[in-house]
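Section 3.1: Structural characterization of target chains.
Under the original work plan, the team committed to producing a structural model for every single-chain target entering the pipeline before any wet-lab resources were allocated. The record below documents one such target. The sequence was received from the expression subgroup and is listed exactly as submitted; it comprises 148 residues.
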Amino acid sequence: MRVALVHDDLVQWGGAEKVLWAISEMFPEAPIYTSVFDKENSLISEKFGTKKIITSFLQKIPGWKSLYRPLLPLYPMAFESFDFSEFDVLAKFTGTHPAVMNNRIQRKNWQLDLDVNKKKLSLKNKMLHWYEKKTGKRLFSFTNYRII
């Protein structure tokens, strides 16, 4: 099965990039699709320099390094421009956290005790929620992915 990794941008070294790096170590042959990639950032280059990085058209915009935050509204278009046809499945990662994050999660003692059934919804939102459950489509919202 061919695997592709997708990440919003590779500009700074933070928590999301650490998780991406850990996942990319599990799938060393998987290309990484991203909007922009800062090759001049030493930590990013050290970790991802040997990986196959595929960037969007945003990378070609002159001065993107100072503009990448204002370009956020173009991210959906940038990611829709990628061709994922050679990959078997597009799926959301639902596995356990990578080992690199386990210590931090234990230190923070993150607990999520959220029961969505206990929320008080207006009639309109109850109807929208019912429709989404039945069809799998969310009305009146924009998605930045395509189900293939």
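The chain has one domain: 5-113.
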